[in-house]
Amino acid sequence: MNRNKIIKSVSFNVMNEQDRAYLERIQDANFSGYVKRLIEKDIRQRKVIKADSTSLQPSKSGGPVIIRSNGLSLKSV
Question: Does pTM surpass 0.70?
Answer without folding.
Answer: no
